[in-house]
Structure formats: structure tokens, C-alpha cells
């Protein structure tokens, strides 16, 4: 893994968000339309109006909090079942630190924020795996190149 790799370089910048007051049906439809299972719940920062993460909502939350609980989905708002105080990472955090936080809190995705705690992206385990796979491929290529060079040098 690149020694200076930070989460801001690899996180997904396209983030789908909802507010606490949104109907759970709207959140579920957004997940279906965008093919995601994770939404960041945001509130506008009072001065700038920029999105500040206040929670997260997963497709699993909807299943366990609404469907499996036999609750009328029309009566449920995002704020009723979201996970509050989400675990986040700063966009300048090293990838290793974010991975440690994911492991520590048992989450597969982290909202990524800037120094003012404004939402700038989401980091998923998939994003980390892509980086690791690329690094692994670089190592394999380096070994193959070394073998070829050695073969040419010592016929």
C-alpha cells in the first residue's frame, strides 16, 4: 500500500444523502434507484449550509428496523431507524487509520469529512480492496520484470 495514501484520494466522491425527516420509503427508493445499500444522513451546517453527517442508513437498517419489526413503513422516518453519530474519517487520514476504525467499530463504510466536518465522500471496504489489489498486481509485475531481466542477463 502506498505509504502516503490517504482516504481522500480513494473515497467515492458521489455520495447519496437523505435527511432525518425523510420518509423511509423515499430512502429505500433512492437506494434502489442508485443501486446502493448505504446513505449518509446529513444536516446543513448552520453558517454555510454544507452537509454535515449526523447518521447513516443501510438497507439492513430498513429490513431490521421496519420490515422485520412489522412496522408500517409509511409511518417511519429516516431519523427513527438511522444509526446516529456515525464513525467518520478525515479525508487527510492515512488509509491504515481508516481501516483500523472500520475494524474497531465493525463497519464496512465510512463517511469521509474535511477539517470542518463537511461530508466529502464515502470510503467502502471495496475501495480499499481495489487499492490493495492494484498494489498486489504491481508487486507481481515487479517480480516478473525482475525475472525477465535476470533471464536476459544470465542466459
Summarize the structure.
The protein contains six helices and seven strands.
Describe the protein.
- The structure is a single chain.
- With 155 residues, the protein is of the alpha/beta class.
- The chain has a single domain, classed as CBS-domain.
- The chain contains six helices and seven strands, in the order αβαββααββαββα.
- The chain has helices spanning 7-10, 24-34, 59-67, 78-81, 95-105, 125-153, and strands at residues 17-18, 38-44, 51-58, 83-84, 89-90, 109-113, 119-124.
Which features does this protein show?
21% strand; CBS-domain; three-stranded mixed β-sheet; 155 residues; 7 strands
Beta-strand fraction estimate: 15-25%
Average pLDDT figure: 89
N to C succession of SSEs: HEHEEHHEEHEEH
| Named CATH topology | CBS-domain
Number of domains in the coordinates?
Answer: 1
CATH superfamily: CBS-domain
Q: CATH top level?
A: Alpha Beta
Show unreliable segments. Answer: none
Helix content: 40-55%
Question: Strand arrangement, largest sheet?
Answer: 1-2-3-4
User: In DSSP terms, counting alpha (H) and pi (I) runs of 4 or more, how many helices?
Assistant: 6
The strand count comes to 7
Return the CATH architecture.
Roll
Q: How large, in whole angstroms, is the Cα Rg?
A: 20 Å
The biggest sheet, with number of strands, parallel, antiparallel or mixed sense and barrel status, is: 4 strands, mixed
| Overall SS class | alpha/beta
Backbone shape: elongated
End-to-end Cα distance, whole Å, is: 34 Å
